[in-house]
Amino acid sequence: MLGEEARQNAVKCIMVARKYLSQGDLASAKRMALKSKRFQHLPVADALLKQLDDIQNPTSPASPKSTNTSSKHSNSNKRSNHSTRNGAGAGSNSKPQASQRDSGRLGSEESQGEKENVQVRYTASQARIVREVRSEKDYYKLLKIDRSASKEAITKAYRKVAVRCHPDKNPHPKAEEAFKKLSTIKGILTDERKRRTYDRFGEEGVSEAGSRGGGGYRHNRFRSSYGYEGSGYHAFSEDDIFNMFFDTGRRRRRGRQDRAQDDGHPRGFQMAQLVQFLPFVLILLLSFFNQSHKPDIHYSLVRSSEFPVPRTSPSGTEYFVSYHFNRKYSRETSVLRSLDEMADAEYFHKIKESCDLERVVRSKSISAAQRNKEGGAQAMAQRLRQAHNLATPSCFRMNSIIDAQA
Length: 406
Fold this sequence. Notes:
This is J domain-containing protein. The protein is mainly α and 406 residues long.
């Protein structure tokens, strides 16, 4: 545990050092890099210290003018370091201004020499893998695997790419961001539901389903595997409906309740409010009573080992039941009719959820295309056309069902 904590502290120090380097504060950057080595020796710390040393002591030949500039920079840096060690800054105005000038000069010199130092900071291969991970939206292409790859193959491919983006191995400033994205990709592709969502709707669909579904899925009381994929939604339970009614009632009547209390009649109003809720309570009680006396019927919209026998409702919805279902309920006309209706309702519900998600993805794609100004007006118009033309097969199917019932 101590070794892991030391490594985490060392990585944090490296991140702070890079931040100071980007701001031009070389002294603070070097201090944090050395502090990182006190926690744990990481190769990236040595690379950062070498980069700082190259910036402070350039070895490339320079003209007399650049030599003078470098000398002035070195002297100013020494003065800055000396004032820092002696506790400078206790109310002096000139020293902070000088420090700011030095930082600005260092940042300018760093940006001018960035092309020369890029070989020292990170290799072209390291920069390329980070760029590919951050920009690629096709997870399978990024990991170089088939869309039907197993979890073991996905994990193996993930490790192969992730090791090249790990901050301890890759000193690129965006390496940590790329590494986190790879971890997210692995989590999506090794989760059956999230993977189906990604395969159907892509990266936008995964993020949208996660935000709507809260990162989890809830099953209804019928152990059903839904035939339409990619949904992070869940059906309302009896508790959800009860809370929805009561919360709505409280919101609608809050103002009137306050006025009633001001008039000196709070208890009478509360009783009237409870009386108004009695019908909903009775409905919920009757619903629970009816459900408790219904036969335990299980079905699925997709074939499985548990539900292998196909059935088709009068409206054309195909679903599957267990082997013993026909033997047990073949003469129960009311049960069969009820099951057909439930399968139809569930199928339509999942179609509608998928349609809603398709519309959200298309809307987000249109907004992203409108914000993206790269490539000029022609490229923007092409992206907008592609976004508007995104297919919505679930919406087409839902409209077909509605038209057939009309």
